[in-house]
Amino acid sequence: MKTQQHQHIADLARTLGHAHRLNLLEQISGGELAVEQLAQQCQLSVANASQHLQHLRRTGFVQTRRDGKRVFYRLSAGPIPEVLVALGQLAAFNRAAIRDLMSDSLSAPEQLEAISREELLERLQDHSVTLLDVRPAEEFAQGHLPGAINIPFAELQQRLGELPAQQEVVAYCRGPWCVFSRDAVAALKAGGFRARHYLQGIEQWPGISDKGL
Question: Are 124 and 116 in contact (CB under 8 A)?
Fold first, then answer.
């Protein structure tokens, strides 16, 4: 039952995973509107707007009413406005986190010292560095950098003893805006390790596929 619930939530999230659909929902939240009006307000063609609205209708975000040849859309019952507000708040929080990350990179460069891909490759070839993937285990299983070990950031403090103290540790995450690698470097240094991070993360590494290496 829990898996089915999570699958339903994932289906809803996928429906919302498009900027045009979020924009359409924002417009509809102000009141019932016809497809033509929504297309104009969102700067979409009527056909494109209709396609996105059908996705929203199938997953229960909107309902329709026909008046002659015109189709009007309104929000379905439920906490949909609250969901939109929560998403907006999360986006604002993430933007603030990115600003903090950029600020830290200027005020504390020694904490955010990065390693280039070229140097990392050389260090991996001579086995002089430990490559640490701090993403969740599920993401690690889908694909990771060659030779990496996985300790999710949430478990790092409790599992520092699994890392070789004599080697420098290079932490990486999803990409430049993932703060786990930055926080991992801070935790590693506080634990007495020499540590840097690979800023580009897994996103910019060639040869990574959805099915791993």
Answer: no
